[in-house]
Amino acid sequence: MIRKSILVYLLCLLTVCWMPAAENSYDSLVKAVAGNDALEGETLEYFLRLTPPLLQYLDHASGRKLNKSLANVHSVSDLKRALDREIGPDWIDFGEELFDFFTPCDSLEKNGEARSMETAHFILSFLTGTRAEQDIDFLAANAEKSFAAIAATIGGSLEAPMRFLKNSGEAGQDKRKIAVFFHGNKQAMQQRTKSNGLGITNFGATIDDEQSVRLTCEINVVYTNPFALAIVAHEVAHAALLLGSFKLEAIQGNKIEGQKGLAKAFFAGYRRIPAFLQEGIGDHAAYYQGFLGKWPLLPDIGQLLRPVLGSGSYIPLEQLIDAHPAIVVKKHKYFSLLAASFIDFLIQEYGVGKMRAWLLAGNEKGRETFASIYGEDVRAVEKKWLASLT
Questions:
Q1: Which residues contact 376 (CB under 8 A, 6 or more apart)?
Q2: 59 near 66, Cβ under 8 Å?
Q3: Dihedral of the CA atoms 191, 229, 237, 116 (nearest 10)?
Q4: Angle at Cα 33 formed by Cα 30 and Cα 36, nearest 5°?
């Protein structure tokens, strides 16, 4: 039976393909620093995964080898000071310059065998021989943590909407989980999604054999380098927010016939959320739940945002919150990180309840609902937020 379906697409362009070298010349240095500082747990894992390729990139960006300059580095603090001295205070840049350094690896996925791993909320699919296979346990754990973090932000458990997902199990099995596909190159991503993006969340609905509406949620990520951990968390946050904000009463118990009926039911339940909040929640999961708290080398959020906050390219929040998609794309390098920082400030200062109300207001015009929920004009709150970053 051909399934009738309707989809909503969310794109995220954060990373590119990379085939790691067999050995990184900085591995020994990074391991020694980790030992000296007694790093452990996720902090240790992030440090070991991300720091060597970052130093390789900085070799390239500076046009010279940093090995000799880092010879006397014995701690994370030493390493930060050395990079400030040798490269400058803005040595880290999670924009195009860093990600474009990593070379596309189109040779992957030719001989790999399909494998999958299940967690409480996800079915993670990958091919043998890819970076995703190497990192799958870490990816699975991070996906569940991101999912739980967004669930807490929007009001607790997401088990109710999960029960309305299309069953992906075989006959007699009930598997209502979010599908995640990791691709070893951009071509494989394009073949499955018809998208030029490097991370995409497809959210929609379909009609099952009993003429009932079932939600569909699928994440696709090009995963070939450790920095792509951020895109995984970002897309999982999209999926959790889309599921958690959906009004289930629009499809619950209804028998639907035809594409028009499906579209009517889906969009009656689909809650419109400004791109500022969608992308901000994605980066909040990636940075505040992941990189920012667990990779000790990452500067604080104020330093990461300094290139835009201290330049004429900064767009005031009263414009950015309801920005046209064209502006969002143009400013994507900092757009979602600015939004994530502002979201975190609101949660810390005003509580998660008001953030939940803003997310679930169902109004694409975020400025219209901000003042009524927070009791202040966005410009006044923006001044407090900016002051907190200095």
A1: none
A2: yes
A3: 60
A4: 150
Q: How far apart are CA 18 and CA 14, in angstroms?
A: 13
Task: Give the CA count within 13 Å in the CB-facing half-sphere of 253.
Answer: 1
CA atoms within 13 A on the CB side of 251: 31
- Calculate Rg over the CA atoms of the chain: 22
Phi/psi of residue 82, nearest 5 degrees: -65, -40
Gap between the Cα atoms of 135 and 223, Å rounded: 10
Q: Give the pLDDT confidence of 100-126 residue by residue, as tens digits.
A: 676 454 444 566 899 999 999 999 999
Helices assigned H by DSSP within the chain: 27-36, 41-62, 76-86, 96-101, 131-154, 159-162, 186-193, 229-245, 258-269, 275-283, 292-294, 301-309, 317-320, 325-330, 332-350, 352-359, 366-374, 378-388
Phi and psi for 124 in degrees, rounded to 5? -95, 120
Question: Can you tell me the distance from the alpha carbon of 379 to that of 316, in angstroms, rounded to the nearest whole number?
Answer: 8
* Bridge partners of residue 165, in order along the sequence: 215
Q: Give residue limits of the domains in the chain.
A: 5-13+106-269, 27-101, 291-388
Q: Which CATH number fits domain 5-13+106-269: 3.10.620, 1.10.1760, 1.20.120, 3.40.30?
A: 3.40.30
3-state helix, strand, coil in the chain (%, to 5): 55, 10, 35
Residue with token string 């979602």: 336
pLDDT tens by residue, 1-43: 334 445 554 444 333 344 444 456 899 999 999 999 999 998 9
Give the SS3 label for residue 119. Answer: coil
Amino acid at 115: R
Report pLDDT for 5: 46
Q: What are phi and psi of 6, to 5 degrees?
A: -140, 140
Calculate the dihedral angle through the C-alpha atoms of 235, 239, 245, 250, rounding to the nearest 10 degrees: 150
For 146-177, write each residue's pLDDT tens digit. Answer: 999 899 888 777 999 999 999 876 655 678 99
